[in-house]
């Protein structure tokens, strides 16, 4: 195990534990899960037992009370230990989508109800944001939540909702007021915690290219009644609560992408030392060396950006009084540095990770295309990250408009 030299103390321990637990699951395990399209139950149980579902959950609710930086270290260890994308994916669905927003914006009752179960690995999570007509343009979602007595009645459709088939609870994003009523498009969204299973929430899995140890589903919500105590954060300020999920999501996938890059690269380097073609190990040819060396250098830079973004989040996005609408909305100004660093990290890390996996695949020659050498699986996995959680174009849009100050496009 190569411990990244910048990790020490608790972080080194988290990395070491994550790497060790992950390396108990050999490549054959992941090949089979991917092929059979099965949830990696044994892996999930093992990481939950080690406390990895509760890293950001406060100790009083059964977690470790760490920040996003430590969560990023755990993700890096799990991915590099051999789990590939699964090492970030399962953490994302349950810990970043569900535990983090409840920790930051939940009421005492919500925290007591959900956090201990999440920390123990009994409650899995999901986030239902994307809709058939709304992906990049989040603020235009059409799912509505209408107040009736002390309940909200929800109707709408969602798409690509990962993990909803197993979720004990998920975060739903819905419109509680139209943009016309609020006069500002970013107002009028609200977040709800939805308990599952529910007969009013039906779903069907979408067959997909990779990450087949987790289902991503089309979701139909019909007359779902949510008690008002399940509103998460202030009514109509859901967009600002959602930022506390979307930025960590970008950061988590940024560290995950670099980690998949390192994983693929380490296998390629090993192969290049041993594969002899024209009487010499292929790793002695500069045409093989340079892309691997370049990929490594790019990963090192991208990894620093991902950790910078995680540290910025921990420093600048402290939890606020969840009842105060004004507090939650006004904190968005303080979050601009988090948005800046998250989008930059997401963009750079995904490109660096993809380049590393691409060159790893080339190094394996024809074997890179064979399932047996795993790199083709990491290739299918990492390519998702150019499209989701936010496309690379949209990350660049953010940098162009919010960092460089360029005018909005039409
Ligand atoms: C496997 C998988 C799992 C997912 N899991 C979840 C989940 O758990 N929960 C969830 O809510 N969502 C999930 N998603 C959805 C994901 O977040 C969206 O697919 C993503 O945000 C892109 O939205 P879209 O697919 O609607 O693309 P669109 O928004 O339709 O974009 C299509 C293309 O147009 C480009 N484009 C659009 N507008 C602009 C612009 N202004 N400038 C430049 N280019 C532009 C985009 O970059 C893209 O290339 C998942 C998606 C996948 C594939």
Kindly report how far apart the N and C termini lie: 50 Å
Number of domains: 3
CATH class of the largest domain: Mainly Alpha
The gyration radius over C-alpha positions equals 21 Å
Q: In percent, how much strand structure appears in the residues?
A: 5-15%
Helix share of residues? 40-55%
What is the chains' assembly state? single chain
CATH topology group of the largest domain: Butyryl-CoA Dehydrogenase, subunit A, domain 3
So, the CATH homologous superfamily of the largest domain? Answer: Butyryl-CoA Dehydrogenase, subunit A, domain 3
Structure description:
By secondary structure, the protein is an alpha+beta fold. The chain folds into 3 domains: 9-119, Butyryl-Coa Dehydrogenase, subunit A, domain 1, CATH 1.10.540; 127-232, Butyryl-CoA Dehydrogenase, subunit A, domain 2, CATH 2.40.110.10; 238-403, Butyryl-CoA Dehydrogenase, subunit A, domain 3, CATH 1.20.140.10. The chain is built from 13 helices and 10 strands. The strands form 3 sheets. The protein has a 4-stranded mixed beta sheet with strand order 1-4-5-8. Strand 2 and strand 3 form a beta hairpin. Helix 4 (68-83) packs antiparallel against helix 5 (86-105) and helix 5 (86-105) runs antiparallel to helix 6. The longest helix is centred in the middle third of the chain and has 37 residues, at 238-274. The protein starts with 8 loop residues before the first helix and ends in a 7-residue tail after the last helix. The relative contact order is 0.11. Bound molecules: flavin-adenine dinucleotide.
């Amino acid at each position: 195990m190569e411990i990244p030299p910048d990790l020490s103390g608790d972080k080194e321990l988290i990395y070491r534990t994550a790497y060790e637990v992950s390396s108990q699951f050999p490549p054959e395990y992941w090949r089979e899960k991917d092929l059979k399209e099965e949830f990696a139950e044994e892996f999930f149980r093992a990481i939950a037992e080690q406390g990895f579902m509760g890293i950001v959950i406060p100790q009083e609710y059964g977690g470790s009370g760490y920040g996003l930086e430590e969560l990023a270290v755990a993700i890096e260890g799990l991915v590099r230990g051999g789990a590939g994308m699964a090492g970030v994916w399962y953490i994302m669905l349950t810990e970043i989508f569900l535990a983090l927003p409840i920790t930051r914006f939940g009421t005492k009752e919500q925290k007591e109800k959900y956090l201990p179960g999440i920390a123990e690995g009994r409650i899995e999570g999901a986030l239902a944001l994307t809709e058939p007509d709304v992906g990049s343009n989040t603020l235009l979602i059409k799912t509505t939540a209408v107040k009736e007595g002390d309940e909200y009645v929800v109707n709408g459709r969602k798409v690509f909702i990962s993990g909803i088939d197993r979720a004990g609870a998920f975060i739903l994003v819905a419109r509680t007021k139209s943009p016309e009523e609020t006069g500002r498009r970013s107002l009028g969204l609200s977040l709800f915690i939805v308990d599952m299973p529910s007969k009013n929430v039906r779903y069907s899995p979408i067959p997909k290219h990779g990450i087949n140890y987790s289902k991503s589903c089309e979701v139909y919500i019909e007359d779902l009644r949510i008690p008002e105590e399940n509103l998460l954060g202030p009514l109509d300020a859901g967009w600002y609560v959602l930022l506390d999920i979307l930025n960590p999501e970008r950061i988590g996938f940024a560290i995950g992408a670099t980690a998949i890059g390192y994983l693929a690269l380490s296998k390629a380097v090993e192969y290049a030392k041993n594969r002899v073609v024209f009487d010499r190990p292929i790793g002695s040819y500069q045409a093989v060396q340079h892309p691997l060396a370049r990929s490594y250098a790019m990963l090192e830079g991208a990894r620093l950006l991902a950790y910078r973004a995680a540290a910025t989040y921990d420093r600048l996005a402290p939890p606020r009084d969840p009842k105060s609408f004004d507090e939650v909305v006004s904190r968005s100004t303080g979050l601009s540095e988090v948005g800046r660093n998250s989008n930059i990290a997401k963009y750079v890390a995904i490109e660096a990770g993809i380049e590393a996996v691409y060159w790893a695949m080339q190094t394996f020659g024809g074997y890179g295309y064979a399932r047996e050498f795993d790199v083709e699986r990491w290739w299918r996995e990492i390519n998702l990250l150019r499209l989701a959680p936010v496309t690379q174009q949209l990350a660049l849009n953010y940098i162009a408009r919010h960092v460089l100050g360029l005018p909005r496009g039409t």
